[in-house]
Each structure stands twice: as C-alpha cells, then as structure tokens.
Design brief:
Helix content: over 70%
Structural class: mainly alpha
Distance between the termini: 26 Å
Shape: globular
Radius of gyration: 19 Å
Strand content: under 5%
Number of strands: 0
Largest sheet: none
Length: 197
C-alpha cells in the first residue's frame, strides 16, 4: 500500500510545480533567453535559493518532468509482470510519453527548445542519462551481471524512438515503426534474454 505524501511533501511539490509553471509561462511569453532565474523567482514569489533547491539550472526548469520520465522508463523495464516481454513494455511507455509530449499546447515548447542551443544541449545530455539508466534497468530486470552492450544499445534506440516519434507527422505510427526495428535487433543481439523477458 502506498502511503500518501505528508503535508510537507505536498507543499514542496506544489512549490516546485508553481516555479516550473511560472518559468514556462515566462519563457513562452518573453523568450527563453530574455528571462533570467531572478525573473522566475520573483514572478513565482520564491527566493532564488528556493528555486535552486528544486531545479539545478535554468534549463532544468523547461524539462521539469525529467526525473519522472526517467523513473517511468526504468520502471517499465524492471516493474513489468514476470512474463511480460521487455520490448512491448518499453513500447507502451514510450507511446505514453510521446502522447504527453505531442499533446495540444506542446508545440510552442518544442519550438523554444529547438531554437535554443542551451536547451538542445541539455536535452541531449538528459537523453544520454536516461539511456544509461534504462540500460542498467534492462540488465537488472533480466538478472544480467552487468550492463551489456546489447542493453545499452537497445536503451539508446528506445530513447531515440521517443525523439524521432515526437518529430514525426504521425508520432504513434513512428513509435510502432521504430519498435519493430528495436524488437528485431533485440531478438538478434540478446536471444538468451528472450527466455527471461
């Protein structure tokens, strides 16, 4: 049974969300480069130190769901039912993430990210970190002694599937197409793991 968060945790989560929402609104209204950390803190009515206790950098304000996305991906690999194959579980999670990131209202955010070298660089480092975490989770979910090259490659493909699909005219069809290739690669590179997931 999951214990509901206490008052302190709820308050921290609400403050974090308020800061993120304020930052995104200001970035979209004025432009990412035109808004400073102090602007966000002032508008959100928090101290700069409070902002930095929730977000490590200005770029992190744009990708405020970064930790949640990473957790969801690793959970798809390690938390699936015992007999559910790995690749379909990952496909389902990527489809959900793509739906979220291509929903109405997301296009201006992605245009802002694409226009900013700092945000593109941050996104790339975030994707690499997600891929490493996912590779570790895949290895753990299959009881492999270490993160194999196959686990790392498949994790990178999965993360790239998200990026490619987000940019495609039909994101869900793109996820399906890329995951057919991922499934084929997984069957070839890691056949022993197929018996375990």
């Amino acid at each position: 049974m999951t214990v509901p968060p206490g008052r302190r945790e709820r308050k921290k989560a609400a403050t974090r969300q308020k800061i993120a929402d304020t930052a995104l609104r200001l970035f979209l209204e004025r432009g990412y480069d035109a808004v400073g950390i102090r602007d966000v803190a002032t508008e959100a009515d928090v101290a700069v130190t409070t902002l930095f206790s929730h977000f490590a950098s200005k770029e992190a304000l744009v990708f405020e769901q970064d930790d949640d996305f990473e957790r969801r991906l690793t959970q798809a690999a390690t938390g699936r039912p015992p007999h559910e194959p790995l690749i379909p579980a990952l496909r389902r999670e990527i489809q959900a993430l793509v739906r979220h990131c291509t929903a109405d209202g997301a296009a201006p955010i992605w245009r802002m990210i694409d226009a900013s070298p700092a945000l593109r660089e941050y996104e790339e480092s975030m994707r690499l970190r997600h891929a490493e975490s996912l590779a570790t989770a895949i290895a753990a979910g299959l009881d492999l002694p270490e993160t194999t090259m196959a686990c790392r490659a498949i994790a990178r493909f999965v993360i790239d599937a998200y990026s490619l699909a987000r940019e495609a005219p039909d994101p869900q069809a793109a996820v399906d197409e890329v995951f057919r290739m991922i499934e084929a690669a997984w069957q070839v590179t890691c056949p022993a793991a197929l018996d375990r997931g």
